[in-house]
Every structure is written in structure tokens, then in C-alpha cells.
């Protein structure tokens, strides 16, 4: 489990297709404190550490994960939002995030509003019903509040701090973004279907 509060920006330094996709991610985390098999959310995808170095870790990514996320577009040099798994007693500053991406949204518009940036994204139709104004979503692993919803389109406002400590300062129209809907929204929708 994660909170959607990004704690490092990593960088892909190596990608290899070895049956599954294998990625080496440079990190500022103290890798002496990372166990083999640990879970690290990398752009919102919960990935398992399979190898470690002094300033990097490696993950193995199945074809299913590549198919359901934006990881197929990963390339060497790409910056990634990183978050280590939540520990009992940690502050829950965002919302409960599983790292199990539901689908991929597309950035369809950017607009500066004061010092902040309003980003409009288009969700897949089957996921749009779970997104509500003032609800939570995780986008590339970042816990965010939805401002408005119009059909499949929804808006997020990024303050300068968020753009500085995540990769959201790099966003552009056309970018494909890993989308995880709020777990509570999923269960509320399921319960309403059953009534």
C-alpha cells in the first residue's frame, strides 16, 4: 500500500527485454535500506525490487503490466515518480493507493492559472464513472484531488510545489498517464450496482 505522496524522482538508466521487461531505476533512496522483493511504486505502478546497487534498483515487469499501463513508453532517461511502500505508523498524507493501475488517461489540455497549472485528462470510458469532483485519483502515483468532471474529461490543478517535487512539471498534451481510481469510489459504485 502507498499514500500517493511522492518521495523521490528516479530516472531510468537501463531497459532490457529478458522475457519480461527489466528496468534499472536510479534513485536517491538509501538502497541499503531496501530489501530484495520490496515494493516501490514507480510512476504509480507497484513493482518488485529484483536487484540492487549503490544508487539504483531493478524491477522485472510482466507483459500484462506493460499492456495495462504507460510502461510500454518508458525509455532510458525518463524521470519517474517514486514512493516506497507504506509502513505501519507512517503519516497518511494522500489517500490509500494500491499501485494497481486501472488504466491509462491522456492529457488533453494544459492551462496556467496564476502560479498553478490546470491539467485536463481524458479517462477511459469504463473508468470515468468512478471519478467525481473533489474525489481522489492517483495519476502516475501522485495522490490528487479532482476539480471538475465533464463526461470522460476531468481537471486537476498542480501547485508549484507539486510540479517541483514530482514529474508533473514535465507534463505535456498527449502524455499517457497511469490512472488508479480511488478504492472507495470503486466499492461505492459496486454497491450501487447491487441495489
TrEMBL record:
It is an enzyme of class 2 (transferase). CDD domains: Riboflavin_synthase_like (cd00402). Residues 1-95, 96-192 form the Lumazine-binding domain. The keyword Nucleotidyltransferase does not apply. Pathway: Cofactor biosynthesis; riboflavin biosynthesis; riboflavin from 2-hydroxy-3-oxobutyl phosphate and 5-amino-6-(D-ribitylamino)uracil: step 2/2. Keywords: Repeat, Riboflavin biosynthesis, Transferase. Its EC number is 2.5.1.9. Lumazine-binding repeats lie at residues 1-95, 96-192. SUPFAM superfamilies: Riboflavin synthase domain-like. It comes from the Bacteria. It catalyses: 2 6,7-dimethyl-8-(1-D-ribityl)lumazine + H(+) = 5-amino-6-(D-ribitylamino)uracil + riboflavin. It holds the Pfam family Lum_binding. PANTHER family: RIBOFLAVIN SYNTHASE, RIBOFLAVIN SYNTHASE ALPHA CHAIN. Catalyzes the dismutation of two molecules of 6,7-dimethyl-8-ribityllumazine, resulting in the formation of riboflavin and 5-amino-6-(D-ribitylamino)uracil. This is Riboflavin synthase.
Amino acid at each position: 500500500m502507498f499514500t500517493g505522496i511522492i518521495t523521490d524522482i528516479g530516472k531510468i538508466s537501463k531497459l532490457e527485454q529478458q522475457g519480461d521487461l527489466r528496468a534499472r531505476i536510479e534513485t536517491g533512496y538509501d538502497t541499503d535500506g531496501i530489501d530484495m522483493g520490496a515494493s516501490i511504486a514507480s510512476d504509480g505502478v507497484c513493482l518488485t525490487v529484483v536487484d540492487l546497487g549503490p544508487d539504483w534498483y531493478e524491477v522485472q515487469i510482466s507483459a500484462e503490466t506493460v499492456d495495462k499501463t504507460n510502461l510500454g513508453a518508458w525509455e532510458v532517461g525518463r524521470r519517474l515518480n517514486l514512493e516506497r511502500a507504506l509502513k505501519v505508523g507512517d503519516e497518511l498524507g494522500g489517500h490509500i493507493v494500491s499501485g494497481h493501475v486501472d488504466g491509462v488517461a491522456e492529457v488533453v489540455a494544459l492551462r496556467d492559472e496564476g502560479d498553478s497549472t490546470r491539467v485536463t485528462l481524458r479517462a477511459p470510458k469504463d473508468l470515468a464513472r468512478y471519478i467525481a469532483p473533489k474525489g481522489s485519483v492517483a495519476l502516475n502515483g501522485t495522490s490528487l484531488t479532482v476539480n471538475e468532471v465533464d463526461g470522460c474529461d476531468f481537471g486537476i490543478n498542480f501547485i508549484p510545489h507539486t510540479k517541483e517535487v514530482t514529474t508533473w512539471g514535465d507534463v505535456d498534451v498527449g502524455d499517457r498517464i497511469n490512472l488508479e481510481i480511488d478504492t472507495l469510489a470503486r466499492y461505492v459504485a459496486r454497491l450501487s450496482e447491487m441495489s
